[in-house]
Amino acid sequence: MLITTEVWYLYFTTVTDFCLRENRSSIRRHCAVAPGALLAGDASGMADLSSPLAGLWQILTLIAGPVLSYGYLALIVTLTRTESWRHRLQPLAAAGRMALSNYITQSIICTLIFYSYGLGLSGQVGAFVGLVISATIWLAQLGVSVIWLKRFRFGPMEWAWRSLTYGKLQTMALPASRGAAALRP
User: Fold this and answer.
1) Rg (CA), the chain
2) What is the DSSP letter of 173?
3) Domain total of the chain
4) Tens-digit pLDDT string for the chain (185 aa)
């Protein structure tokens, strides 16, 4: 479950980063399906498993997951079309630019919290406490991502990956004028 959550986190932060950067009318066509896709995905949780059609319902729930994801994506794209929501979603773009660093950091933090070589809380916390822990980690990563990218071009893991890809160390720090301008309110 943890890996799935992290993969979706990477996916949606990257998509949000794309949505904030793109301004093409072709994307708007996909936004028209958001309400229907969200309703279809949410309806998948209302099955009566004792029904003779329960097998069919399992197939529908298999389809509803991707449809619901597409609906959420379309909703995010639609929201980024307005200036007020674009400003509210901007921290997600920073997290998307540091997706690999955030993924590795989240994995390390969660293993230290839940595995036996850390606090060993696996199976000992309820759903609500797990949600609070997840939300706290996620919000902290959003804040750190925004602050980090005001000073550096990309996250530490993205820097390492880029340096390995190009075969030479990449410049990590922002130019002095751009970094100073980003720090001003």
Assistant:
1) 20
2) B
3) 2
4) 334 444 545 555 555 555 555 555 544 444 444 444 444 444 444 445 566 666 676 777 778 788 888 888 888 888 888 888 888 888 888 999 999 999 999 999 999 999 989 898 888 988 899 899 999 999 999 999 999 999 999 999 999 999 999 999 999 998 876 545 554 44
| Token representation of residue 41 | 């995905």
| 145: containing domain | 100-185
The reply to whether 105 and 26 lie within a common domain is: no
Domain boundary among 97, 124, 153: 97
Q: How far apart, in whole angstroms, are the C-alpha atoms of residue 13 and residue 137? A: 15
**Token couple for 65:** 């997951």
Does one domain contain both 90 and 8? yes
Judgement on whether residues 131 and 74 belong to the same structural domain of the protein: no
CB 182 within 8 A of CB 125: no
Of 128, 137, 142, give the one whose Cα is nearest residue 110: 137
To 10 degrees, the CA torsion angle through 141, 145, 151, 155?
100
**What kind and span of H or E run contains 176?**
helix 176-183
**Alpha-carbon distance values, 44 to 32, 52, 54, 150 (Å):** 20, 16, 12, 42
Do residue 79 and residue 145 come from a single domain? no
| Chain Cα centroid distance, residue 21 | 16
